[in-house]
Hints:
This protein is mainly alpha-helical. It contains 4 helices and 4 strands, in the order βαβαβαβα. The chain has helices at residues 21-26, 40-47, 68-91, 131-146; strands spanning 2-3, 31-32, 52-55, 96-99. The longest helix is centred in the middle third of the chain and has 24 residues, at 68-91. The protein is globular, with a radius of gyration of 16 Å. The two termini are 21 Å apart.
Amino acid sequence: GRCGAGAEGAGGGGLEGGLGGAAREATEGAEVIEADVRDAQAVSDACRGAAVVFHCAAIIDTTTRAPAAVRERSFSINVGGTQTVIDACLEQDVERLVQTSSINVVFAAQNAGVDESAPLVTDTSPARVDLYSESKARAEVLLLAADGQETRGG
């Protein structure tokens, strides 16, 4: 198996803060590859030969009113990086992509006890949504649209 990481320069070279000792031990028997989730070639290379890819990369920023550069970084990692992983999986004939999602994709202040049938936070006013929730919800839309797509090899 293979394990990819997150955004280069996001505080330690991989998935936010890098892959720590516990994560490395948990992946015993797997090939650990640290790369920037926004780097299409690196992600494609990491997916080559994999039957299953676990997409766990994300940047967690709960700012609601962020400067443009902070907003761009969150969206480039959480949304753009997810699209990069989807594209790589399709290109490399990966059988299954498993996304680690978040309750934040459906959570709004008035919701209690929500499940996956609740509307995504992108269906609510962006003024009430932080960067993490909004960007993860938009990534979820990409994943749902990709579900069932044919890979390059069929």
